[in-house]
Amino acid sequence: MTVALTIDGIGVSFAGVKAVDNVSMLVHEGELRVLLGANGAGKTTLMDLISGKTRSTDGRVFLFETEITNWSPNRIARAGIGRKFQIPSVFRDFSVRGNLNVASCTDPRIRSNLGIGIPRTRRQRIEEVLELTGLAEFAETPAANLSHGQTQWLELGMLIVQNPKLLLLDEPTAGMTQNETHKTAEIIKGLRGQHTILVVEHDMAFVREIAEQITVMHLGRVLAEGSMTAIERNEAVRHAYLGSYGISAEAV
Amino acid sequence: MITQRRLDRAAYILFIALILLAPLVLGDFWVNRIAKFLVFGIVAVAVSLCWGYGGILNLGQGLFFGAGAYMLAMSLKLASATSMQQGSDHPVPDFMLWNADPGAPTELCCINRGSFLWLPFQWQWFGVVMGILLPVLLAGGLGLVVFRKRIAGVFVSVITLALVLLVRLVVIDAQPLTNGFNGLTDLGTFHVAGFGFDPYARATYYLVAGFLILTLVGSRLLVETRAGLILQAIRDDQNRARYLGFDVPIYQLFFFTVSAAISGLAGMLYVIVAEFASPTFMDLSFSITMVVWAALGGRASLLGACIGAILINVIAASISETATFVEAWKAIIGVVFVLVVLYLPRGLAGFAQDFGERLERRFADSGKTTTPGVIPQAQVPRGQAP
Ligand SMILES: Nc1ncnc2c1ncn2[C@@H]1O[C@H](COP(=O)(O)OP(=O)(O)OP(=O)(O)O)[C@@H](O)[C@H]1O
Ligand SMILES: [Mg+2]
After folding, report:
1. In Å, how far is B221's CA from the nearest CA of chain A?
2. Which ligand has the minimum distance to the alpha carbon of residue A84?
């Protein structure tokens, strides 16, 4: 199987504290990997390192064969990594469709964007994504008027329109109702196989619904890796979570 | 949405028709005056493009306007009759002689240390080309530094503001080259293929009106391109745009530079209509006034900003012009700005747009074509309205 994302001993420290410390990880093409860990474990920071938001001090990152360590964020995005943020961000003055239109301009150069209108093939893709994210009936709604859940789905849709090789989703269900969480799980399951996905999530019900492989982080390091059942049985994980929030406790 | 677009187009057509027909009912004096205001309309389009669409509040737009103005004024100064009467076969600006060291040669090449810079301006078209090129180079250089360094928001405003003040000082200080405080006056007429554009002639009015229409329609098309949409997206959320893969500084730089080029063009047209260039173009108050025009008309609307500029100036000119009034007017402008920012953030264009939407809803209701689930509100990005 082809490896989509290779992280090789990556690390960064803030003011002497190692937020991410020598993390290595392989994610295969088409895999859906869940990243677990308590608050402050370094999950977001790891995504920052992959997506170019934070410069690493050690280690390397590869997207397929290409080394992308410390590239600029826009270059990494162009290379095929789509990033969804913990706090959803969309273009509020644009309609839902307008947001997707902008995202669909995958050629970043000004000169190739001096035309008016979106080419037909891309428009088709936008319709598909509107269906997939359940936003079809809100296509003309200004993004500013969307509910929190819809905003999250729109941001997800903007990434999907770009057909990224790798999706980084930071807490895609944060602040969602149970219904919305379930729907998000459906959307993400719908992407499985076509996209390689790395998702950070706290909601165990959600994780249970979507997870194949899980990586657990603790204090900036990888603590364990494996299937849901393996992780639940893992002594180190149980130990680390004891007293904070237990995976097993929530699981039953 | 369709109604909105139609109203939008109607507004453009109406406006263009109006400025084309205005000279039919106006006397020469007013034709010249309105021509000046149309120039300000062009400037307001530049402000709207940069501020309303790009979110870059340039408080030094006067720098680019001034650069354009001086470049053409230098050529027209050399074309002036007075420049040929200084005892040389070649034109020499009169003020250079007044300021010349005793015994200095009365030639443009060497009458003072920097005067050779004026040499190529003997060709009017050199001045015209420089009138666009200089603002573009200035904006390009400035933008490259500012946007690459991800300086944003109010800091860009402060930097542009400081820069226009600095350049103003330099221009005043370089008295032997620029005639300092007095600026360049006594200019010759602008010629195209032997035809002279007299400031009070209708031809000059139509020259300005033509460029205004070109700028307005051109800018409108530009903001509707995908690049224009990306620029507005950057204005909304720079980070999101960056993580979608757009090189944010390049887009900001591009539109900042286009805006500067338009300002330079306006500066040149102003010189043709007003027959002078002066450091007052780079006064802080002038640059701020430009922003007020756009704010009142609606910064996120090219046509709105343009109308705002013309309207404010027509009102100012219609009321008597006593010295006390001029002072009072500055205060009025200040108050208008505060009121607009507080209560009419989308300017007059926002008003017109809301009206259009109400109309549209009524059409939709009577036709019973509303789709359930669609929120009947602004359906176009705010940036795209008239
Ligand atoms: N820019 C920064 N400057 C200083 N410290 C930082 C910075 N970013 C993260 N940290 C620290 O790094 C550690 C890891 O934070 P991170 O946000 O990656 O955790 P997380 O696993 O995403 O947590 P959460 O579940 O709360 O989102 C924390 O201790 C945090 O305070
Ligand atoms: Mg986090």
Report:
1. 8
2. 2
Q: At A154, which CATH number?
A: 3.40.50.300
Answer whether residue B369 shows pLDDT above 60: no
Q: What confidence tens digit (pLDDT) does each residue in A31-60 have? A: 999 999 888 899 999 999 999 999 999 999
Judge: B236–A93 Cβ closer than 8 Å, yes or no: yes
B178, HSE (Cβ side, Cα atoms, 13 Å): 21
Whether residue A65 is found in the same domain as residue A119: no
Does A175 lie in the same domain as A72?
yes
Distance CA A246, CA B3 (A): 57
Best of A116, A118, A170 to disrupt the B interface (most B CBs within 10 Å) is A116
CA distance B255 to chain A (A): 10
Quote the tokens at residue A26.
């392989």
CA distance A68 to A8: 12
Distance of CA B186 to the CA centre of its chain: 23
Token pair listed for B143: 């933008």
**Residue of B227, B235, B243 lying closest to A110 (CB–CB):** B227
Regarding whether A43 and A13 lie in a shared domain, the answer is: yes
Which conformational region is residue B92 in: left (phi greater than 0), alpha (psi within -120 to 50 degrees), or beta? beta
d(CA A52, CA A222): 20
CA-CA distances (angstroms) from residue A115 to A237, B254, B305?
Answer: 54, 15, 24
Residue A192 resides in a domain: no
Instruction: Identify the CA nearest to B232 among candidates B52, B378, B58, B46.
Output: B52
Residue A21 and residue A60 in one domain: yes
- Determine, yes or no, domain membership for B373: no
B58-115 residue pLDDT tens: 999 999 999 999 999 999 999 998 888 767 778 889 899 888 888 888 888 888 888 9
Q: How far apart are CA B258 and CA B270, in angstroms?
A: 18
Structural domain containing residue B47: 4-364
Maximum pairwise Cα distance, chain A:
59
Low-confidence residues of chain A, pLDDT below 70?
242-252
The tokens describing A141, both together, are 């709604």
Q: Report the nearest-CA residue for atom 31 of ligand 1.
A: A40
Q: What is the rounded end-to-end Cα distance, in angstroms, of chain A?
A: 34
Cα–chain center distance at B66: 10
ipTM above 0.90, yes or no: yes
Residue B260 in any domain: the answer is yes
- Residue pair A237/A231 in contact (Cβ under 8 Å)? The answer is yes
Q: Are residues A60 and A178 in the same domain?
A: yes
Domain span at A139: 81-163
Whether the CA torsion B188, B193, B196, B197 is positive or negative: it is negative
Q: Among all chains, which residue has been given the structure tokens 């219609």?
A: B318
Q: What is the pTM of this model?
A: 0.90
Would you tell me how many other CB atoms lie within 10 Å of the CB of residue A131?
Answer: 11
Q: Is A26 helix (H, G, I), strand (E, B) or coil?
A: strand
Q: Which residues contact A251 (CB under 8 A, 6 or more apart)?
A: A204, A208, A232
Give residue-wise pLDDT tens across range A125-144: 999 999 999 999 999 999 99
**Ordered alpha helix ranges (H), A96-241:** 96-103, 120-132, 148-161, 178-191, 204-210, 228-233, 235-241
Number of domains, chain A: 2
Residue with tokens 């000169």: A111
